[in-house]
Write a structure and sequence with these properties.
Blueprint lengths: L2 E5 L3 H13 L3 E5 L2 H10 L4 E5 L7 H8 L7 E6 L3 H9 L4 E5 L3 H17 L13 E4 L2 E4 L4 E4 L2 E3 L3 H12 L7 H9 L7 H15 L9 E4 L3 E4 L4
Parallel strand pairs: 1-2, 1-3, 3-4, 4-5
Antiparallel strand pairs: 6-7, 7-8, 8-9, 10-11
Length: 234
């Protein structure tokens, strides 16, 4: 059974999300500010975090940054319609998705299930290991899809589930150009309407982890007007 951490300073929202999620068979942990969220993650393992952006004290953006120092579970931000800049910032520092308030319970459950499927398929949870891991290499990048590990020039790199899936798609298809719509549909498993900024943010964050000079990337290249590709590097 998956455990979902719900963090929002509005207790009514936490209560509503708790009802939606427990009715689907999930266990829940509740927190009401960023510090409580960080403490909850230390106390017990969770499989996904629903995290409000606008909270007093430690807000959702800074909480996400803190979580990503040691935690790779999916993070879905809860945002207001007016917080577009916060959505992009949150994705840039490691959030996996966002839900805009007021939210539809069906959408919440669908996005939670989608992120959990992705997280489990990437080996985020224990068990289900691959006995025949496949190694993908390009230049200094080595990607072991059995062990779900990535190294650059021998140094381990920590990726979020979405970053990992984007890299896996590109590494399996060196030289092939994927449009932002194709990347979104293949990685997020959702229609790609309005996906350009979301994909661009994740690509930028991925470059920051893989490239010596992210502004002049060796590996993930943009093909203007068409999309992105993994450049073959000897």
């Amino acid at each position: 059974m998956n455990t979902i951490l719900i963090c929002d300073d509005d207790r009514d929202i936490v209560s509503a999300l708790d009802i939606y999620l427990t009715s689907e068979g999930y266990e829940t942990v509740k927190a009401y500010d960023g510090l409580e969220c960080l403490e909850a993650v230390k106390r017990q393992p969770v499989d996904l975090i629903l995290l409000d952006v606008m909270m007093p004290g430690l807000d959702g953006i800074r909480t996400t940054a803190k979580l990503r120092e040691s935690c790779n579970v999916p993070i879905i931000l809860l945002t207001a319609k007016s917080e577009d800049s916060d959505k992009i910032l949150g994705l840039n520092i490691g959030a996996d998705d966002y839900i805009t308030k007021p939210f539809n319970p069906i959408e919440v459950i669908a996005r939670v299930k989608s992120q959990l499927r992705r997280y489990t398929s990437l080996g985020g949870k224990s068990g289900g290991g691959n006995d025949n891991p496949s190694l993908l290499t390009n230049g200094g990048i080595a990607m072991d899809d059995g062990a779900k590990s990535v190294t650059v020039d021998g140094e381990p790199v920590s990726l979020t589930p979405l970053e990992y899936n984007i890299l896996l798609l590109l590494m399996k298809n060196p030289g092939r150009v994927f449009s932002t719509s194709q990347i979104y549909e293949l990685v997020w498993n959702d229609p790609s309407l309005g996906s350009e900024n979301t994909v661009a943010v994740h690509i930028r964050h991925l470059r920051e982890k893989l490239e010596i000079d992210p502004a002049n990337p060796r590996y993930i290249k943009v093909v203007w007007g068409l999309g992105y590709k993994m450049e073959k590097v000897v």
